[in-house]
Amino acid sequence: MKKYVVVAMIFLAIILATYEINAEENAIRNAKIEITGIDFGRFTEKYMEINIHLNIINNESREIKIEGKFHVFILNVSVGDAKMKASVESHSSQQLIIPLRLYYDKVAEGIVNSIKSGNFNLTLKGKITGKVFFGLLTYSQNIEATWQ
């Protein structure tokens, strides 16, 4: 009889763990990342700063804690990398600003002129990663967001 109780408890623990992992992965998978705007920081002789405004939306019933690493493209040309880290409560959203520094010697003149005139598109391509099951496991999701 004790064996059955132990087996039943182990089986129940496995079911609960599987449910928890699946719910947390779904919350990360269903998170939406939108570029809501762009503004300019400093312009110097060597570089310009662009602030990328992100909105992370979590419509699920679980809090998500995510980190992201992105390649940034302007006019479909890679111009740099960016990182972010966020914790978004269930059924809420969080606004983030990601700074990006563009060095003129690394970016073509046509792209710089397009940026200064405001006539360009910006795309983030990368991966978000979140910890699930009490931080013991990692779940990753590819993402892409574009602003025009």
Mean pLDDT score = 87
Could you say which overall geometry the principal axes of the C-alpha atoms support? Answer: elongated
CATH architecture descriptor name: Sandwich
Give me the count of strands.
Answer: 7
Task: List the defining traits of the structure above.
2 helices; three-stranded antiparallel β-sheet; 7 strands; 55% strand; 148 residues; alpha+beta; Immunoglobulin-like
Written overview of the protein:
With 148 residues, this protein is α+β, with helices and mostly antiparallel strands. It has a single domain, classed as Immunoglobulin-like (Sandwich). The protein is 25% helix and 55% strand. The chain is built from 2 helices and 7 strands; from the N terminus they run H-E-E-E-E-E-H-E-E. The protein has helices at residues 2-29, 109-117, and strands at 32-43, 47-58, 64-74, 77-88, 92-103, 122-132, 137-147. The strands form 2 sheets. The protein has a 4-stranded antiparallel β-sheet with strand order 4-3-6-7. Strands 1-2-5 form a 3-stranded antiparallel β-sheet, with helices on one face. Strand 6 and strand 7 form a beta hairpin.
